[in-house]
Design brief:
The structure holds three protein chains of three kinds.
Chain A lengths: L2 H7 L11 E10 L2 E11 L4 E5 L6 H8 L7 E6 L2 E2 L2 E4 L2 E4 L2 H8 L2 E4 L11 H11 L5 H14 L15 H13 L5 E5 L7 H17 L3 E5 L3 H7 L2 E6 L2 E6 L1 H6 L4 H12 L1
Parallel strand pairs in A: 3-10, 3-11, 8-9, 9-10
Antiparallel strand pairs in A: 1-2, 1-4, 4-5, 6-7, 11-12
Helix pairs in contact in A: 4-5, 4-6, 5-6, 6-7
Chain B lengths: L2 H15 L15 H20 L21 H6 L1 H34 L3 H15 L3 H14 L7 H26 L3 H9 L4 H31 L11 H12 L3 H28 L6
Helix pairs in contact in B: 4-5, 4-7, 4-9, 4-10, 4-11, 5-7, 6-7, 7-9, 9-11, 10-11
Chain C lengths: L17 H12 L7 H14 L6 H30 L7 H35 L5 H16 L2 H15 L7 H27 L2 H9 L4 H31 L11 H14 L6 H31 L14 H5 L7
The chains are: A alpha/beta, B mainly alpha, C mainly alpha.
The structure holds adenosine-5'-triphosphate and magnesium ion.
Adenosine-5'-triphosphate binds next to β2 and α2 of chain A.
């Protein structure tokens, strides 16, 4: 297997800071519906990759596969040089145990389109849960970090409010803070502004800009906000039919698309 | 434990996999085989049981318990089966008779509960609440004592069971009726009003036909529940499945076999009944109460 | 009167409902003064009809307590009238009441035992019903079918009469054995409640907790069960009352609960040639009814507590924030 070799050539794992992501020949189908086809993709540590593409092209699926919410049919995924779904065994790979997956998974954070905040906890409790339960932090420490994170997303005053009391934009900012509290080395954002009213989109994008500026996480974003993609992305990927059909600097892809399907998609988006 | 995430997936996928036959208002429920066949079967079984099962005055076990120090004797266990079945049939008959009372009485309770006048609806509700939250066993003793207290009234044990179970489960049935009526879409009521239908037409043509499919499975569940309560009537002298076990135990001084065979026989009857109700439930889209 | 009041918190302006508190107070007061029950019930209903906001917990609680108390009042009134009409005295002697109340402690004891066992079984079997492993799932299903299929009275006889002989432990406590039988019965129904409630928690919640890397147990404990609670509690309350009703059956295997003492009193009456009196059993019924209503109110209070966790607090003012945050400029604002 060539995978065991790639570990050594791929960036070595320092354990902290941004981590790279590598997909190798990842396939995923739902029944007869093939969603990812032999996907190969390398994301460097600290890189900000924006994924665009038509509906149903598999953008969400690739993020869900990275978060282990969906298991790929074949292929390998590596986070910071460590295999996510496999464990090295000699120079072969074996399907990973739940323990191994959980260890690698702790490097990844995901923000969902529909927030998925825990409705029975306050904003602060939402943020404190994982640091306390997963990382074993003391309550005080978790609460201090939690307040700082809330402040960072401009919601310190809402610490004691439950999701039911918050607006969509506020909910999404809490969800981002919750994800940040685990100090993930890779962050996944799935259309985090799509469920928001237009006037609330700005506040969430501002938070994303802040995270990008700090630059200690790798970011994979799926979005339909082309202007934002242009501003944020180090690299823009055009997805169609479960494959990357075009990739490059955002300005290049957006202004001079080469692939006809990209041209059609961007034309449709602009016309809208 | 990791079932949780699977469970969620299952929940999301379930509607796609299993095809639920939806209730179709244009097809009248009494023309649907999947509803009428079980109901008819029930009625026939009911008629047969009520008509032909006699409750014997006493069990003639004519059986010697095997001697020795064994705690459990398989041969004897199997020999008890015919007697147990005899008792089981009486228990089933008692449950069916009681439930027949419950179905009718429950309807009147539901009417009272829905009444516009508070001095009708509140006491009805109090009575329902009271009967529902107290044990049937005590209620059976109450009816027994009442029957003894009224001179000239002479009810057989099975008639007493019929009253006891009937009144108890009438309260459950009334709640099922109420939920069934409430499950009829508000728009249906409004449409009936908009069409200027008379109250009688509204009820018989619009509300009840739509409520019945929602009520039937709930009634089925309560019938099974009534069946589970029926064996306790041995305390008032009904010769049901526990009476049999009690009698055999008293005659032979052996308790393990009779009670275990009673339990086994009971499961054999109640599991298919519960399964049939679940099938009915699945066939009919209905709102849980 | 515009609804678009600009506010930097983004939270909607609070609407006051002065009547809510009143209904709650009336409801609570009706516990010592049952006559206030109908007022709380009626007012609560009026108020509920006008409101469809989420913050109705206190209102519902006040109304429910009022309702329970009015029903209690009506039942007692109804019994008084009936008995007066029948021409029998409606009270037992003080000594008989004392016997019954002492025996109700045994009933409560059995209820607590079987509730404890029932809850544990419900949780374990309910979760096992959703296991990945076919065998665990199958075993859990078999348990549920057995526990729901068998009649609790037959189960009590098997547990308390047959099992001690079969296993040769004649000295086993009847109370415990009967409580185990009832607990198994409750576990069967409870497991289905728990299973349904777990399935009702949105899929996104599980995914979010996975993305935070919580272990399956933590997921269940901190995310899924707390949310399932709102779905679990109402049917669980009903189930507990069913089990309370079931405790009357233990008298048949010789446990000295309420029902058994009632039968003892009946024997005494028969012995004294007084004849069987329906009044005795009416009193017993009322006793059970009161116990059931206590269970009911306890569950309502519990439901209220769970609902409260969804309500959250108010916006914090700058003074309430920790010092280092108060002085720092906020990162981003909407
Ligand atoms: N759990 C699932 N079961 C079956 N099919 C699925 C499942 N999840 C996704 N799919 C299918 O996979 C395909 C890709 O879905 P995906 O959500 O990745 O698309 P997307 O690019 O994110 O689209 P959108 O822009 O609409 O969010 C779709 O055809 C979808 O129907
Ligand atoms: Mg998507």
């Amino acid at each position: 297997m060539s995978e065991s070799k790639t570990i050594s050539t791929f960036e070595s794992d320092s354990g902290t800071g941004a981590a790279g992501v590598r997909f190798h020949r990842v396939n995923k189908a739902f029944g007869t519906n093939v969603v990812l086809r032999d996907l190969d993709l390398d994301v460097a540590p600290g890189e900000r990759v924006v994924i665009i593409g038509p509906s149903g092209s598999g953008k969400t699926t690739i993020l869900r596969v990275t978060m282990t919410l969906e298991r790929p049919d074949s292929g390998t995924v590596q986070i910071g040089g460590r295999h996510l779904y496999h464990e090295p065994h000699g120079d072969k790979l074996r399907p990973a145990s739940e323990k191994h997956m959980s260890k690698v998974r702790s490097d990844i954070g995901m923000v969902f389109q529909h927030f998925n905040l825990f409705p029975h906890m306050t904003a602060l409790e939402n943020i404190m849960l994982a640091p306390m339960k997963v990382h074993g932090k003391a309550r005080d420490e978790a609460s201090d970090t939690g307040m700082e994170l809330l402040n960072k997303v401009g919601l310190a005053h809402a610490a004691n409010q439950t999701p039911g009391q918050l607006s969509g934009g506020q909910k999404q900012r809490v969800a981002i803070a919750r994800s940040l509290a685990c100090e993930p080395r890779v962050m996944l954002f799935d259309e985090v502004t799509s469920a928001l009213d237009p006037e609330l989109v700005g506040e969430v994008l501002n938070v994303l800009r802040d995270i990008a500026q700090e630059g200690n996480t790798t970011m994979l974003l799926v979005t339909h906000e082309m202007a934002f993609a242009r501003e944020m992305a180090d690299r823009l990927l055009m997805f169609d039919n479960g494959q990357v059909i075009e990739s490059g600097r955002p300005a290049d892809v957006l202004d001079h698309p080469q692939n006809p399907r990209t041209q059609a998609f961007l034309g449709a988006v602009k016309a809208h | 434990m990791s079932a949780i995430d699977d469970a969620a997936t299952e929940a999301a996928e379930a509607p796609e996999e299993r095809e639920i036959e939806e209730y179709r208002p244009h097809r009248k429920w009494y023309r649907r085989a999947d509803i009428m066949v079980p109901v008819l079967v029930l009625v026939v079984v009911y008629a047969l049981l009520v008509g032909y099962v006699e409750s014997p005055n006493f069990f003639r076990t004519r059986m010697e318990a095997p001697g020795g120090l064994v705690n459990f004797d398989w041969m004897w266990f199997f020999h008890l089966i015919p007697l147990m079945l005899q008792g089981l049939l009486v228990t089933i008959k008692g449950a069916l008779l009681g439930f027949a009372v419950a179905v009718v009485l429950g309807f009147f309770l539901a009417l009272g509960r829905r009444a516009k006048l508070p001095f009708v609806s509140w006491p009805t509700m109090a009575v329902i609440e009271f009967i529902r939250s107290t044990p049937v066993l005590v209620q059976l003793f109450f009816w027994l004592a009442l029957e003894r207290a009224i001179p000239g009234l002479n009810l057989s044990p099975i008639a007493l069971l019929m009253v006891g179970l009937g009144v108890h489960y009438a309260t459950y049935c009334s709640e099922a009726y109420r939920a069934g009526i409430n499950s009829v879409d508000k728009g249906q009521w409004e449409a009936a009003t908009a069409l200027n239908l008379s109250p009688a037409t509204k009820w018989t043509r619009v509300v009840i036909p739509q409520a019945v499919p929602n009520v039937l499975p709930a009634l089925g569940n309560y019938l099974v529940a009534a069946f589970k309560d029926a064996p306790m009537a041995f305390v008032i002298g009904v010769h049901g499945v526990l009476f049999f076990a009690d009698q055999v135990a008293a005659e032979t001084f052996r308790v393990t076999e009779p009670y275990l065979i009673a339990g086994a026989g009971f499961l054999v009857a109640s599991l298919p009944a519960a399964w049939a109700v679940r099938q009915l439930e699945r066939k009919i889209a209905y709102e849980r109460i | 009167m515009s609804m678009n009041v600009p506010s930097d918190t983004g939270a909607p302006p609070e609407i006051e409902h002065p009547r809510t508190k009143l209904v709650l107070v009336l409801g609570l007061l009706s516990i010592p003064i049952p006559l206030l029950g109908p007022v709380a019930w009626w007012m609560g209903n009026q108020e509920l009809r006008q409101r469809d906001d989420d913050d109705r917990g206190q209102l519902v609680l006040g109304r429910t307590i009022g309702m329970v108390m009015s029903i209690l009042l009506l039942v007692v009134l109804g019994l008084l009238v009936t008995l007066a009409a029948v021409g029998q005295g409606w009270l037992l002697t003080g000594g008989q009441y004392r016997t019954l109340i002492k025996a109700s402690l045994v009933t409560i004891q059995i209820l607590i035992y079987s509730f404890a066992l029932g809850i544990v079984l419900s949780l374990v079997v309910g979760v096992a019903r959703l296991s990945d492993h076919r065998w665990i799932r199958g075993a859990a299903l078999a348990f549920v079918e057995f526990a729901r299929g068998i009649s609790s009275i037959i189960l009590i006889f098997i547990m308390a009469v047959a099992i001690p002989i079969l296993l040769d432990v004649p000295q086993a406590s009847k109370i415990l054995l009967a409580a185990i039988a009832l607990g198994i019965n409750m576990g069967g129904y409870g497991a289905e409640i728990i299973r349904g409630a777990i399935l009702s928690v949105p899929k996104g919640q599980v995914e979010a907790s996975l993305s935070l890397n919580l272990t399956p147990t933590q997921r269940l404990r901190h995310v899924i069960l707390p949310q399932a609670m709102t779905v679990i509690l109402p049917p669980m309350g009903n189930l507990t009352i069913e089990i309370l009703k079931g405790t009357a059956l233990v008298s048949l295997v010789g446990v000295a609960d309420i029902m058994q003492s009632a039968n003892n009193i009946r024997q005494e009456q028969l012995f004294a040639q007084e004849g069987t009196k329906a009044v005795l059993f009416l009193n017993v019924l009322v006793l059970y009814f009161i116990l059931a209503q206590i269970v009911n109110v306890l569950f309502k209070l519990w439901e209220r507590r769970v609902e409260k966790s969804y309500e959250g607090g108010r916006t914090l003012t700058p003074d309430e924030l920790p010092a280092h945050i108060r002085h720092a400029t906020p990162g981003v604002t909407g």
